[in-house]
Amino acid sequence: MIKFRLALTAAALALSCGTVLAQDYTAGPLKIEQPWTRATPAGAKVAGGYVAVTNTGATPDRLLGGSSEIAGKVEIHEMAVNNGVMTMRGLPDGVELKPGAKTELKPGGYHIMFMDLKRQLKEGETVKGTLTFEKAGPVPVEFSVQSVGARAPAEAHKH
After folding, report:
1. How far apart are CA 112 and CA 133, in angstroms?
2. Predicted confidence (pLDDT) per residue in 10-31, tens digit
3. Residue 62's beta-bridge partner residues?
4. Cα gap 26→148, rounded to integer Å
5. Which residues contact 24 (CB under 8 A, 6 or more apart)?
6. Rounded to whole angstroms, how far apart are CA atoms 141 and 67?
7. Whole-angstrom Cα distance, residue 34 to residue 19?
8. For residues 5-30, b (16+ Cβ closer than 10 Å) or e, as one string?
9. What count of Cα atoms within 13 Å lies in the side-chain half-sphere of residue 49?
10. What is the secondary structure of 89-104 as a DSSP string?
11. How far apart are alpha carbons 110 and 122 in whole angstroms?
12. pLDDT given at position 159
């Protein structure tokens, strides 16, 4: 009976934390770490997606884009500041994943652009998507939805 109560308490505590932790995936020599996105306000038509990809192989690959249940279109974009002006542009050829290197898609730099959103993204949920690589092909992933102002994927809660 005590073990049952402890298990119930642990489950309730885990559910009350409210944050979904991002997962890791592998596709051949690619290690795909913690895909995540941010919650969006009602009516938003775009959202950014973020992930780190380590290419442990000996040849380059490219992240070309993808698809998602929540967006009409998924592209790779780059945000940069040029002469004090922030710019964002689509990268039709995606982003190169150099051998032996980690490439981070994060706020303020390379990122995944979810366009023509079909619905609002809510903190704590996960959304299904597929990342498309030139050599590794399509890789199904789940993006954890973090808070509107998140700067990185959620870490395990420390109590």
Report:
1. 13
2. 333 333 344 445 689 999 999 9
3. 96
4. 28
5. 31, 32, 33, 34
6. 10
7. 13
8. eeeeeeeeeeeeeebbebbebebebb
9. 35
10. EE-TT-EEE-TT-EEE
11. 23
12. 35
d(C-alpha 20, C-alpha 144), whole Å? 6
Question: Residue 129 corresponds to which amino acid?
Answer: G
The residue type at 4: F
Q: What is the pTM of this model?
A: 0.81
Q: What is the pLDDT of residues 68-93, one digit of tens each?
A: 999 999 999 999 888 889 888 999 99
The owner of tokens 């990122």 is 111
CA distance 61 to 134: 6
Q: What is the DSSP string of the chain?
A: -HHHHHHHHHHHHHHHH-PPPP-EEEETTEEEEEEEEE---TT--EEEEEEEEEE-SSS-EEEEEEEETTEEEEEEEEEEEETTEEEEEE-TT-EEE-TT-EEEE-TTSEEEEEEEESS---TT-EEEEEEEETTTEEEEEEEEEE-TT-SSPPPPP--
